[in-house]
Amino acid sequence: MASPQDILAALAKVEESLYGRLHADISALRLEVNGRFDAIEVRLDRLETEYQMIVAGLRRVEEALAEDRTERARLRAAVAELKTKLSQLEARVRDLEASLAEE
To answer: CA 20 to CA 18: how far, in whole Å?
Structure first.
C-alpha cells in the first residue's frame, strides 16, 4: 500500500499536469481570440476607409446637384427673358406688317 506522501506526490503531479494543460489551452485560446480580433480590426479599418470614401463621393454629388440647380434656375430665367423678347419682337413685326399694309 502507498504511503500518504506517495499519494500526495502523485496528486501533485496530476495537478501540475492538469494546470499545465489548462494553461496551454488558455494560451492557445487567447492567441486564437487575439487573431480573430486583429482580423476584425482590419476589416473595420477597411470599412471605415470605404465609408469615408463614400461620404466624400456623396458630398461631391451633392455639390454637383447644387450647381446644377443654380444653373437650371439661371437657364429658366434666361428662357423667360427670351420668351418676353420674342413676344415683343412678334408684336413689333405685326405692327410693321400692319403699317406696311396701310401704305
So the answer is: 5
Please, how many CA atoms are within 13 Å of residue 15, restricted to the half-sphere of its CB?
6
DSSP 3: -
How far apart, in whole angstroms, are the C-alpha atoms of residue 33 and residue 4? 42
Q: How does pLDDT run across 11-45, given as a tens digit for each residue?
A: 888 888 888 899 999 999 999 999 999 999 999 99
pTM of the model: 0.55
CA-CA distances (angstroms) from residue 28 to 16, 25, 70, 95? 18, 5, 63, 99
Size of the chain, expressed as the number of residues it contains: 103
Grid cell 481570440 is found at 33
